[in-house]
Amino acid sequence: MKKKQMKFHLAIGWVLIVIAALFLFHDKNIAIQAELPYLGQASPKAYIAPFNFDVPKTEQELEIERNRAAEKVNAIFEYRESETKRLSDDFRNFMQKLNQYSSLQHQISAASNSDNTDSTLQYKVAKAGKLHDSLKDKISTTAIRYLSQSSKARDSLLAEYDRMLERGISDTYLAPSEAALQIYKNNFNKKNAKWIIYPHSNVILFKENEKLNIDVSNMQYIYQRADEALAILQEKFPSEQGLHSAFYETLCVFAFPNIFYLEKETNASREEARNKVSPIKGKIPRGMEIVALGAPVTKDILEKIEALQNALQSEENSRTFTALYGNALLLTIILTFFILYFLNTPSRGIFKNPRQLWSLVFIVLLQLLSFWVVHRFSAAVSQLELEISIIHGNPNFEFMWLYPFTLAPVTATVLYDRKIGLAFAAISSLIFGILIGFDLAATICAFAITYATTVPLARMRYRVQFLWSILTGIIATAAAISVMLLLRNRFSFEAFYQNLIAGSVNVVICTALASVLLVHLMERIFGITTVLTLMEMSDFNRPALKRISEIAPGTFHHSIQVSNLAEKVADCIGANSLLVRVMALYHDIGKTMRPEYFTENQKQGVNPHNNLDPQQSAKIIVDHVEKGATLAQEYNIPDLVAAGIREHHGSSIIQFFYHKAQELAQEKGIDAPKVEDFSYKGPKPQSKETAILMLADIIEATSRSMTDTSPEALSAMINKTIQGRYIEGQFNESNLSIKELSKLEKAFLNSLDGTYHTRVKYPGQK
What we know:
- By secondary structure, the chain is mainly alpha-helical.
- It has helices at 3-24, 29-33, 59-72, 81-113, 121-136, 141-148, 151-167, 178-188, 222-236, 241-254, 263-275, 299-316, 323-343, 354-384, 390-393, 407-415, 418-435, 440-454, 465-487, 493-526, 531-537, 543-551, 553-570, 577-586, 614-634, 639-647, 655-668, 688-704, 711-728, 738-755; strands at 47-48, 53-56, 76-79, 173-175, 195-197, 202-207, 210-215, 259-261, 280-284, 289-291.
- The chain is elongated.
């Protein structure tokens, strides 16, 4: 990718990550946190109040007091006169009908027993029947019979019902506890009764425009009042069981509430009580010493210091420039230097297209987002100050060790290289240091941990290296925790192992997440090929390599030899030797389409090119590059590896058939052949790795055809090959320097000299 194009995409990426950082971390309290001592440490300085200020209650303390204030508010009920009158009228109407029915029954009975025939008897019987049907809509026939026989019973029932209404019938059962509520439901079989758990002894009752404090025992639910009235009636009529049943049935039918629970008003009163609770715990007068130099910082002292810092910040809020702007400026500077690093480092050559370049922005955003999640959680725990919280409930624990500062460095090292991994380690550590209060020691420790974690991943070959990464990361974490605890005068075995557990879990999760999910995901999304993928592709059981070995065994042998040769020489100039090796294994896959037209696959001296003119032969040879690129797509070979297929011949000329065509043209007296018809279509090598592959391919093939393999002959051949390709301009786009070409020449010679060295003849050999 050209540098101008790279600048454009990095500029857009810089804008995005700066906006994201400023949006996620616009907390002005980050700067304040830098000045706060830690719970349990010796105070680094004396704190004296510069002015009067309030010490606020913590959210937990305030919530507890508000709940207590709300709980002290009694439930509010209303005695409704209109409802009482309606119920009383309904019951009196019913009792009036019952009295009429009783009177008619006596008259009918008296008329039936006398010799005189009452002309109105039939009318009375009909009227009594209608009254009975009306009464039967409310109570049973048995209850009607018993109540109609005793006027005293009816008068007692009416008097007791009036007493029930006067004392009040509540629409809500007040249960002192869950257990009492369950007993009530079981005894009365009222699963859907309206109820509240109410442990207080009094309630507020509004009756006749008067506010009364009533004992809970006087607030009886419907069936409780019915039971109470029945007990009184049973005392008056002790031996009449049938009458008892009639009493209870009638009471249950006509017992409706006339006292109603005002839930909305009760909640409003409780909310008012909550709002009246003062958020201030106390006041600190000007000149008061909050803590002396070297004195231990207790929870109470820390709360006062935090209150002082908040008061100072409140005063600064009236100013135009505050810590918020300084924090934003610092984040912008850090992210700017991070982006500039990629414009001035050799590692930028690994980004072949804008999509791969945007993977950098994605990792930065991912690291910022993970920091934000932990930072917000840390702030929430700190503000709530729960008894079980990590910070205040356990002074030995430091939340800083849960920040995932190794996530981006590990991912970047595996995806790219060691240099980019260190760049991410630097930015991750710096932002981490800012978030925990501009702590320089913590920043250095975080960088040391990330450095140690990424060291085993620098030359990634096997996934087991992730285990070594975790191990070194944990060791570095143990050392960093020791340093931080010693600096804060808080070192103890308990504090050490608690923080070590948290830090170790952090390293394990970040490394595991990077190795299992992120690396694989980013390979797919951004088209990046990691060393892990390259190692998998070097397996000879891969379908593409099996195709070469089965269809073109000579080509397969040639590819192996080229891969061995290219891998050896790549290290001498710092190129990616594993990538060169894998590209070499696949570079001639296109020959499998017509393997018999390539020398290494021809058997018994049969050469099909003898029956073709040079142009046709050259076309077949050239086509193996294009067909190889097509097969690369079919076998899902990554673009990074497929580049070796497309570029390993560059735009070079097929000299043998070109010279043969020239000779034929001279013999026939026709126009000389065009060079383009005998040249590969390119592109020229775009990287050092494909340039090395080009040279290794030619040098390996040429060395096999040499009869004189002395060091001098090999050196001349290698020099001629490199010079020829250099003069053709094949290396113009590969960033290979003259010095590196010289190193490659020596490396090729050393490798081939070792391959063709003279062996000692054993006895009996000729």
